[in-house]
UniProtKB/TrEMBL annotation:
<dbReference type="GO" id="GO:0008033">
    <property type="term" value="P:tRNA processing"/>
</dbReference>
<keyword id="KW-0413">Isomerase</keyword>
<protein>
    <recommendedName>
        <fullName>TRUD domain-containing protein</fullName>
    </recommendedName>
</protein>
<dbReference type="Pfam" id="PF01142">
    <property type="entry name" value="TruD"/>
</dbReference>
<dbReference type="GO" id="GO:0009982">
    <property type="term" value="F:pseudouridine synthase activity"/>
</dbReference>
<comment type="similarity">
    <text>Belongs to the pseudouridine synthase TruD family.</text>
</comment>
<dbReference type="InterPro" id="IPR042214">
    <property type="entry name" value="TruD_catalytic"/>
</dbReference>
<dbReference type="InterPro" id="IPR011760">
    <property type="entry name" value="PsdUridine_synth_TruD_insert"/>
</dbReference>
<dbReference type="InterPro" id="IPR020119">
    <property type="entry name" value="PsdUridine_synth_TruD_CS"/>
</dbReference>
<dbReference type="GO" id="GO:0005634">
    <property type="term" value="C:nucleus"/>
</dbReference>
<dbReference type="GO" id="GO:0003723">
    <property type="term" value="F:RNA binding"/>
</dbReference>
<dbReference type="InterPro" id="IPR020103">
    <property type="entry name" value="PsdUridine_synth_cat_dom_sf"/>
</dbReference>
<dbReference type="GO" id="GO:0001522">
    <property type="term" value="P:pseudouridine synthesis"/>
</dbReference>
<keyword id="KW-0819">tRNA processing</keyword>
<dbReference type="InterPro" id="IPR001656">
    <property type="entry name" value="PsdUridine_synth_TruD"/>
</dbReference>
<feature type="domain" description="TRUD">
    <location>
        <begin position="348"/>
        <end position="585"/>
    </location>
</feature>
Length: 663
């Protein structure tokens, strides 16, 4: 079966070469071809945490010890409920409330159903009945009262704290069976009325419980930030209570750790059953709940474990043509793959910034937008970003066209679909500033603009590394840079951009590891895997061989008219520069070949499939076992900020852009 969009020469990619992805580390291995991401389930990413444990979603239930009494009440008989409520009155007495007030709570609760019936028949009620308890100055006793109410009466009343005559009082209000009743009464209440604030319930966080809920997020075909946003919207919490260690691919199935500040496991678990028009329950699943003392911070992971399916494998001729005529024997492919894996295990692969770093618009990669930003060419940025949608009937393109033809940003905004967030910000910037280009670009999130600058730095880094490897090969040489401390790690600047607007966890200004110049007499103590190269910036050191500061400056000046002063002036966008290891090795590669007959069939199980006992292995029919198509299923671990597509490029010896050409 031939794919409609198969490239004519799979060995060439102007797009990769344009962003500096040029060299290979293993020049002698045989090229072969396969299709990447035919389905989301062909690209599975499991985070590897700081303890080197691969993160999996294995359990979606809330552990018994974390379940609140409120949940268990649902399972009680009427008799058990009565006993449970009586225990609550006993606990109130133990907490120090005198008999008169315990009796007043008993009376208040006993009238709940009668009060609800009366209110349902009254259209004029403007006030919700409540009971204010005497002021209690002792914090421990106040907590004990709240705890008794929350544990024993949570199905009958809810409590908050009210200010009366400058004193804090615990206040009770009925929890009616008809949940809409209190809303309708509240709407009729005068605006001056003191509103009941049920959010105060969260303030009575159990003293013995750590502050953060730790859980696993399993998502499919959605960005990490968008998944967290969907969870926050559904639970009506600020997304800033959540933090995570790193963002994961969109077009994939990914599994990662998340922490949330003072949010109950039951609320998060409830999300698994929530339906909404904005997100399907299928593409976000949560589980593996526990409480921890500290939130996750950016970069708090050791890497990612990938499970990748490359479909419809075939050999590649020397002229770059796919050999679809030869019926490929799995044994023959197995030999080629084995040799290729040996090569990558020995020599590694070049740690290029992959194509994802440069965006999805081939005519204007994000590195070009970064160049425009450094050169203060604001009109070019705005125009490029407004014209990414080329389809004739695209509603966004139509709205933007109004602006270009008439200059009327207000009219264009009125026609712009809600989902076009970037275009909305730019057009709003034009509207509010009387068509000022700088203001239009300035309306974009700072994190997005930083990403453009970092993409430009990445583009220069890729080109410099290609030149370094072409000139000196895969060995360290005098003048190379290495980290001064052997165990130092690369810092992923792009992750900081993506995290900046989403997470509450304050990040200190990045402290890059210090570097030193390799001397000739030290070479035997180092390998190519120790060598780093700089991303250009305002605060960075350079190698002392031919790929030195002068090389960088000449390259940027001739190609893009950029000088070092551009980075110094660009402090708003963190253009300090960074260091990055030039070669990486994959860890613990496992693979097998699989025959199949249908490209639409899923070939590997996700964590959710395993939980639900839906193995695709079992559903592959006999015809698949003898199918004429062959897929490579490969598993491997990469350290943080390393691109799986760059490893696959090296393994197959074909450009990564070709592997995903049919998407």
């Amino acid at each position: 079966k031939k794919h409609k969009t198969e490239p004519t020469n799979v060995l060439l990619s102007d797009t990769e070469q344009g962003v500096g992805i040029i060299e290979y580390a293993n020049k002698n291995s045989t090229s072969f071809y396969g299709i990447l991401k035919e389905r989301f389930t062909d690209f599975i990413v499991n985070e590897v945490d700081y303890n080197n444990k691969v993160v999996h979603l294995t359990d979606q239930s809330v552990p018994e010890q974390y379940k609140s009494q409120r949940t268990n009440i649902k399972e009680m008989s009427d008799e058990e409920k009565k006993v449970h409520v009586e225990k609550g009155f006993e606990k109130l007495t133990e907490a120090g409330l005198d008999a008169e007030f315990v009796q007043s709570i008993r009376d208040f609760i006993s009238k709940r159903e009668e009060t609800e019936s009366q209110l349902i028949t009254q259209d004029s009620a403007t006030e919700l009945p409540s009971l204010v308890l005497p002021s209690e100055k002792d914090k421990a006793r106040r907590s004990a009262i709240h705890k008794a109410i929350n544990e024993h009466f949570a199905h009958l009343v809810i409590s908050d704290t009210a200010e009366v005559n400058n004193e804090r009082h615990i206040r009770l209000r009925y929890l009616f069976k008809n949940r809409l009743l209190d809303q309708s009464i509240a709407q009729r209440a005068p605006s001056s009325a003191v509103k009941f604030d049920p959010r105060n319930q969260n303030k009575s966080w159990p003293k013995d419980r750590p502050d953060y809920l730790h859980f696993v997020l399993h998502k499919e075909n959605i960005e990490t930030v968008n998944a967290i946003s969907a969870i926050s919207d559904a639970l009506r919490v600020n997304m800033k209570i959540f933090s995570w260690a790193g963002t994961k691919d969109k077009r994939a199935v990914t599994v990662q750790n998340v922490t949330g500040y003072r949010i109950n496991a039951e609320r998060i678990e409830h999300f698994n059953h929530t339906k909404s028009k904005n997100f399907g329950t299928g593409n976000i699943q949560l589980g593996n709940f526990s409480y921890v003392d500290k939130p996750l911070t950016l970069g708090a992971l050791n890497g990612n474990r990938f499970t990748i399916v490359l479909r419809d494998l075939c050999l590649v001729n020397n002229d770059g043509q796919l050999d679809r005529q030869t019926q490929v024997k799995p044994e023959q492919l197995d030999q080629i793959i084995k040799q290729s894996i040996q090569g990558v295990n020995t020599n590694g692969f070049i740690n290029y910034f992959g194509m994802q770093r440069f965006g999805t618009n081939p005519t204007t990669p994000t590195s070009t937008l970064g160049k425009y930003l450094l050169n203060q060419q604001y009109e070019q940025i705005a125009t490029s970003m407004l014209t990414t949608r080329k389809q004739e009937n695209d509603p966004v393109a139509k709205a933007v066209d109004i602006f270009f033809k008439t200059g009327n940003a207000k009219e264009a905004l009125a026609k712009l679909p809600k989902f076009a967030a970037v275009e909305k910000k730019i057009l709003s910037g034009y509207k509010d500033s009387n068509k000022n280009h700088s203001a239009a670009v300035g309306a974009l999130p700072k994190s997005l603009l930083s990403m453009f600058v970092h993409a430009y730095q990445s583009y220069v880094w890729n080109h410099a590394v290609s030149e370094r490897i072409k000139k000196y090969g895969l060995v360290p040489v005098a003048g190379d840079l290495v980290y001064a401390e052997r165990n130092a790690r690369d810092v992923n600047v792009l992750e900081q951009d993506q995290h900046e607007e989403a997470s509450t966890v304050e990040q200190p200004l990045t402290q890059y590891p210090t570097v030193k110049i390799l001397q000739k007499d030290e070479l035997e103590n180092f390998t190519i895997f120790d060598v780093v190269m700089p991303m250009p910036g305002s605060d960075i050191e350079y190698p002392e061989h031919e790929i030195n500061k002068s090389y960088y400056e000449k390259f940027m000046k001739e190609k893009d008219d950029i000088t070092p002063s551009h980075f110094t002036k660009c402090t708003d966008y963190y253009a300090y520069g960074a260091y990055r290891t030039i070669m990486k090795r994959p860890i613990d590669i496992k693979y097998h070949l699989k025959r199949y007959a249908d490209n639409k069939k899923q070939l590997v199980d996700t964590d959710i499939d395993k939980i639900r006992g839906k193995s695709c292995e079992a559903s592959l029919e006999e015809q698949d076992a003898n199918g004429n198509l062959v897929a490579l299923v490969i598993e491997f671990t990469l350290e943080t900020s390393t691109y799986a597509t760059m490893f696959l490029r090296e393994l197959l010896k074909v450009p990564s852009t070709v592997l995903t050409a049919n998407h």
